[in-house]
């Protein structure tokens, strides 16, 4: 006889980068399934900024991902997507450098990074008190890779 298999929906987790979010997801999963269980972690997640929806000390939040027991021939892949915080700069070079820095800071590398949107809108900040008079909001990037801890 075959029985239904458990699928654990992880509560909202927060972190300042992908490694912290991955560790929190794994911590909840291991607490439920056990430390030695072979697990199938979610194949994608979307890290959103916490400062717009919640008051939290961490920069990003992930909600609603599901972890299951592993099964034969499952591919250990994950597509992480992140919404970067607003970026200000004095020109295009400064803005591009800051987007690159934030992206690398979140993912830990530049490997397999692709933009979620093809372009981003730059607006002039008329009341800027410094030379950073241009601002970009809504930049979203993704990275394809593997879960760092696949049992």
Structure overview:
The model has no long low-confidence stretch (mean pLDDT 90). The protein starts with 6 loop residues before the first strand and ends in a 6-residue tail after the last strand. Helix content is 24%, strand content 30%. The strands form three sheets. Strands 2-5-4-7-12-9 form a six-stranded mixed β-sheet. The relative contact order is 0.20. The chain has 151 residues and is of the alpha+beta class. It is built from three helices and twelve strands; from the N terminus they run ββαββαββββαββββ. It has one domain.
Q: Say how many strands there are.
A: 12
Task: Label the overall shape.
Answer: elongated
Strand content: 25-35%
Supply the helix-strand structural class. alpha+beta
- Look at the structure and give the mean pLDDT: 90
What is the rounded Rg? Answer: 18 Å
- With helices defined by DSSP (H or I, 4 residues minimum), what is the helix count? 3
Distance between the termini: 27 Å
Q: Helix content range of the residues, please?
A: 10-25%
Q: Secondary-structure element order, as H and E?
A: EEHEEHEEEEHEEEE
Supply the number of structural domains. Answer: 1
Main sheet specs: 6 strands, mixed
Low-confidence segments: none
Can you list the strand order of the major beta sheet? 2-5-4-7-12-9
């Amino acid at each position: 006889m075959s029985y239904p298999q458990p699928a654990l929906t992880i509560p909202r987790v927060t972190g300042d980068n992908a490694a912290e979010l991955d560790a929190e997801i794994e911590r909840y999963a291991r607490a439920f399934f056990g430390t030695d269980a072979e697990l199938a972690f979610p194949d994608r997640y979307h890290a959103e900024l916490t400062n717009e929806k919640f008051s939290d000390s961490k920069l990003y939040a992930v909600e609603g991902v599901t972890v299951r027991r592993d099964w034969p021939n499952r591919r250990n892949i994950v597509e992480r997507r992140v919404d970067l915080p607003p970026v200000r700069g004095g020109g295009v070079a400064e803005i591009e450098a800051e987007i690159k820095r934030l992206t690398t800071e979140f993912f830990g590398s530049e490997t397999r990074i692709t933009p979620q949107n093809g372009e981003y809108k730059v607006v002039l900040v008329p009341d800027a008190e410094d030379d950073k008079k241009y601002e970009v909001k809504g930049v979203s990037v993704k990275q394809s890779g593997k879960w760092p801890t696949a049992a």
